Amino acid sequence: MDFLLSLVYSAMDRLLPLAFAEPTFMKRAILAVLFVAPAAAAVGVPLVQFRMAFFSDAIGHSAFTGVALGVILGIHPLLTMVAFGLFVAYAITMVKGRTGLSPDTVIGVFFSTAIALGIAIISARKGLTRNLQEYLYGDLLAISGAEVIWMAALFLGVAVYLFFAFNRILLLGVHEGFARSLGVRGRMLEISFSLVVALVVTTAIRAVGILLVTALLVVPAAAARNVARGAAEAFWIAIAVSLASGIAGIAASYHLDTATGATIVLFASAFFALTAAFRLARGDVS
Amino acid sequence: MNGQTAPFHTLEIRDLSVRAGGMEILAGISADIRCGEVTALIGPNGAGKTTLLLAILGLVPFTGEIRFCRAEEHGKGTPRIGYVPQRMDLDRNAPMTVLDFFALSSQKYPVFLGRSRKSRAEAKSALDRGGAGHLIDRPLGRLSGGEMQRILLALALRDNPDILLLDEPVSGVDVSGEELFCDFLDQIHRESSFSLLLVSHDLSVVTRHADRVICLNRSIVCQGATTEVLTPENLSAMYGSGARLFSHGEADGHGHLHGERRG
Fold first, then answer.
1. In terms of domains, do B96 and B148 share one?
2. Model confidence over B212-223: pLDDT tens digits?
3. Which one of A232, A233, A264, B252 has the lowest number of neighbouring Cβ atoms within 10 Å?
4. Residue A174 and residue B140: Cβ atoms within 8 Å?
């Protein structure tokens, strides 16, 4: 694996002969962004259609508790963060399906419960706050080689999942009953999609942090909506926005010495403002 | 449109009940919906009309039985059920064209990799049948209520359903659109022989287009041939004593049920 990574690094030296890309930690950061940002944006397109931004936020914040659990159990916090995120995603989807309560109500309950549990654990164990800092704000420049490989695997996994499920997810997002009448198995699809979202969100936290992770999913898709007319257009514009803001964010944060995750999100927001202005100029207001 | 001449298949509903939140929404429903016939489902708001459609679609849990008896001429396997929902709350900004919408259910590979020539041809011919071919590249969120219903109907008919469920097909459509829609339905229904179950508030649509009527108010009030069922006694039993059918001399030329909120 290390051999593979060093091969990639030397290829990057030839392709990207830029000062900011020279240190190995910067190369890892760039690779991480190249894998995570498009995966998040791609999942974000149907997520926005489903109006699940709040869901993704809840999963992101549950990571806070996942990390705390990892520390007190003596397991690597990254593992407990992903596992707890998956658990919360599954629980929300099941409870929503069984009770018929509105999504934002169920998510609100789980959101606050997870945060309360996290705060309770942290307050009982002094000294935990330091571990949490890097998760709250993200630490793209401290990403390890193993994490880069995990992100590459996630990228591939999301690509395969969307290849097979994208059409049905979008159809389900238009109208559940109608999709079901066309043979879409709604429950299974809803559960699998929420688990994939949870995986992407908990992975992306390493890059942009708990507080900003939803932006990585929602903002590129929202920017794409401003200008795209068709589904394919929306998908690729979202991916392009995520990649452009990812690379621009890393470069800018290197020169301005700002937090990388926040800088990336600011670039994505700038793309949103730009596309919104374009749309208004086109006279498309409704 | 006589069920006897067409190859015979039936949707048999036996003692169907639906409960939700401790409330009985539907109780003891037994009915046959026959192939080649138009069955209208009428009843006041909250009578459980949409719920019955959802039960047939398998979208709500129910007790009792829904059996599909298939004539051999129609092939084997589970029935294909086409469904046109009452409303589609799609936001106007959804980046999806009519063609995308068709391709979502016909194409094996994801629409973000483009849409196949075959998807386009299939969508075009299905839309042309409903006189909506010109809408193929329009964004879905920008269609009028009537246009959207034509799209949904074209899509539901594309896969040659055995049963077609229409929930309030003419709600939110202007009068001329309504005529077009009903004529179109009549035409396709004569051409192919599927069972058509139609929820409607509009009794003029029902009297003109339905062969049979099921009056529903949580349980079945009455059912039978349209002319036998739509009597003042039955209507007042279902909607309350104020109910009566306006004569066809009304300004818009349609009979609406007095005191009933439409849509």
1. yes
2. 899 888 888 888
3. B252
4. yes
**What is the domain range of residue B195?**
1-80+161-263
Mark yes or no for CB contact A181/B110 under 8 Å: no
Cα A85 to Cα A199: distance, rounded to the nearest angstrom: 7
Collapsing DSSP to helix, strand or coil, A58 comes out as helix
Verify that B110 and B19 share a domain, yes or no.
no
Share of chain B above pLDDT 70, in %: 77
Quick check: A178 and B107 CB within 8 A? no
Which residues of chain A neighbour B92 with C-beta distances below 8 Å? Answer: 286
Calpha distance B126→B120 (Å, rounded): 10
Measured between CA atoms, the residue of chain B closest to residue A235 is B112
Domain count within chain B = 2
Nearest-by-CA chain A residue for B166: A178
- Examine the domain organization and report whether B126 and B143 are in the same domain: yes
Residues B123 and B238 both lie in one domain = no
ipTM: 0.85
Residue range B20-70, pLDDT digits in tens: 878 888 998 998 888 778 898 988 888 888 899 989 988 888 999 888 876
pLDDT higher for A204 or A129? A204
Nearest CA in chain B to A170: B104
Domain limit, last residue, from B159, B188, B219 = B159
- CA-based nearest residue to A220, from A193, A241, A251: A241
Same domain for B69 and B185? yes
Q: Which of B133, B159, B185 is the last residue of a domain?
A: B159
- Angstrom distances, CA of residue A150 to CA of A21, A61, A147: 21, 21, 5
B181 and B254: one domain? Answer: yes
> Is the CB of A230 less than 8 angstroms away from the CB of B95?
yes
User: By the 8 A CB rule, do A223 and A238 touch?
Assistant: yes
CATH of the domain spanning A22-281: 1.10.3470.10
Q: Do both B168 and B155 map to the same domain?
A: no
For residue A49, list chain B residues with Cβ-Cβ distance below 8 A: 94
Residues B23 and B103 both lie in one domain: no
CA atoms in the 13 A half-sphere facing the CB of B128: 6
Whether the pLDDT of residue A277 is over 90: the answer is: yes
